[in-house]
Design the sequence.
């Protein structure tokens, strides 16, 4: 076994991947496969690329055959959309663009900011076909980064590699056959040179979200579609779950819903740092906090 | 052994907590706590007084690798401050290990209605105030925080470490 660690940049964030590579495997080739797969994902789903199908759907109504991996994302989005009464929605893209979070990063809010259309009014999805009745700006940012981490994890498993740590800008999947945990620092929402605790991750995923980066005007990257404002009551939060996509999606949903509401539907552990730095966490959130 | 620094550090945490309560309890004036510190970790008992007009920045003590500045242990302090509703208190417990705060918890002890409201927020699940710890002293496999961790982040860390050595 060789311990391999490599860093690169993709889908607008920094990646670090560590894995135990069996002697007979070519680690360079594996790295290349992984990077290619991430590039395909970005090409399909990036809101910032006009040649992505997301870019095409934003320009013209019609019936689109989506890649197979859309099913998992749209499935979870639909579930979160329903239980959050529309607050978690892939249709937030138009709002983000109007608020200035566009492909040129203009960060200049337009006025007024539109509210996003209702899901059932503008689109329907029957695998693999998405029908949109008017051009819509989809945004998979609420769980897409977590999902591409899961896709990379599946690639490793497909190559019979079961010891890895996949970190895409803080959305992390960990697997260890031998039961070795990974220490994941929980970034201080008001000072990126500090952490407020350490999570011990074992065969789980963690995703975090906060309003401290990607902040512009009165917005951060999460916007409530019902009032087109960014929630300010949470400084940072983390979710630990079985899949990174679920952790990522729930990290988004927790800006709009209580953990108690979400726990009725999903299994997960959470840690929420409120704006005043008080903390609410589930009993089994696997971390020591300072 | 420098107990005074420990006390200063603990008082700083109290200051943060007191400031938080001051803000939550409808914009009260800056509280002026009188702080007594009891060190259970070292077996010694020390009492001091302070006020929170100083900065409320919490600093994590950093010491020479071979020579810790503070004794490991759990330190508890009670801060009291004068609010318009009467005297209020807040309890703070800090655990030190190898000169690093490994845990901190805050227990509000409200004396008036507004503070009681604040305490009810704690009761609904928000329990302790978190403090930040300097990342450069830690060995981590990864960091999770904001939704985007830019490339520049690691550069900034490297720069800070370099400056701290200068």
Sequence:
């Amino acid at each position: 076994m060789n311990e391999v660690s490599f860093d690169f940049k993709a889908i607008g964030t920094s990646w670090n991947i560590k894995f135990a590579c069996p002697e007979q495997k070519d680690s360079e080739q594996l790295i290349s496969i992984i990077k290619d797969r991430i590039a395909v994902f970005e090409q399909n789903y990036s809101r910032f690329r006009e040649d992505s199908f997301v870019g095409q759907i934003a320009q013209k109504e019609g019936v689109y055959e989506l890649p197979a991996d859309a099913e998992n994302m749209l499935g979870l989005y639909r579930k979160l959309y329903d239980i959050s009464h529309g607050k978690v929605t892939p249709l937030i893209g138009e709002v983000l663009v109007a608020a200035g979070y566009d492909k040129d990063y203009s960060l200049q809010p337009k006025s007024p900011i539109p509210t996003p259309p209702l899901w059932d009014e503008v689109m329907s999805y029957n695998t693999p076909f998405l029908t949109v009745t008017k051009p819509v700006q989809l945004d998979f940012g609420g769980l897409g980064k977590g999902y591409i981490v899961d896709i990379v994890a599946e690639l490793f498993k497909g190559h019979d590699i079961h010891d890895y740590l996949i970190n895409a800008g803080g959305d992390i999947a960990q697997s260890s056959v031998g039961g070795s945990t990974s220490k994941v620092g929980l970034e201080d929402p008001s000072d990126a040179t500090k952490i407020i605790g350490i999570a011990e991750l074992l065969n789980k995923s963690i995703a975090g979200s906060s309003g401290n980066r990607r902040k512009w005007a009165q917005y951060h990257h999460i916007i409530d579609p019902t009032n087109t404002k960014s929630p300010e009551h949470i400084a940072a939060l983390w979710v630990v779950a079985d899949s990174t996509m679920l952790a990522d999606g729930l990290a988004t949903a927790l800006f709009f819903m209580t953990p108690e509401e979400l726990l009725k539907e999903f299994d997960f552990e959470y840690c929420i740092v409120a704006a005043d730095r008080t903390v609410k966490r589930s009993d089994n959130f696997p971390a020591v906090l300072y | 052994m420098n107990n005074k620094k420990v006390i200063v550090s603990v008082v700083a945490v109290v200051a943060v907590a007191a400031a938080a309560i001051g803000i939550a309890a409808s914009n009260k004036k800056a509280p002026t706590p009188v702080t007594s510190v009891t060190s259970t970790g070292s077996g010694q008992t020390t009492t001091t007084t302070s006020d929170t007009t100083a900065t409320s920045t919490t600093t994590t003590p950093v010491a020479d690798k071979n020579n810790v500045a503070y004794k490991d242990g759990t330190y508890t302090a009670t801060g009291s401050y004068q609010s318009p509703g009467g005297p209020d208190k807040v309890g703070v417990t800090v655990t030190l290990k190898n000169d690093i705060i490994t845990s901190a918890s805050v227990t509000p002890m409200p004396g008036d209605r507004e503070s009681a409201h604040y305490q009810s927020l704690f009761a609904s699940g928000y329990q302790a105030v978190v403090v930040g710890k300097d990342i450069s002293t830690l060995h981590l496999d990864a960091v999770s925080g904001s939704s985007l961790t830019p490339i520049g982040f690691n550069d900034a860390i490297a720069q800070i470490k370099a400056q701290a050595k200068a």
Q: What stands out?
A: Chain B has one domain: 3-133. DSSP finds three helices and seven strands in chain B. Strands of chain B lie at 34-39, 73-83, 86-97, 100-109, 128-129, 133-134, 142-144. Confidence is low (pLDDT under 50) at residues 1-66, 117-124, 147-161 of chain B.
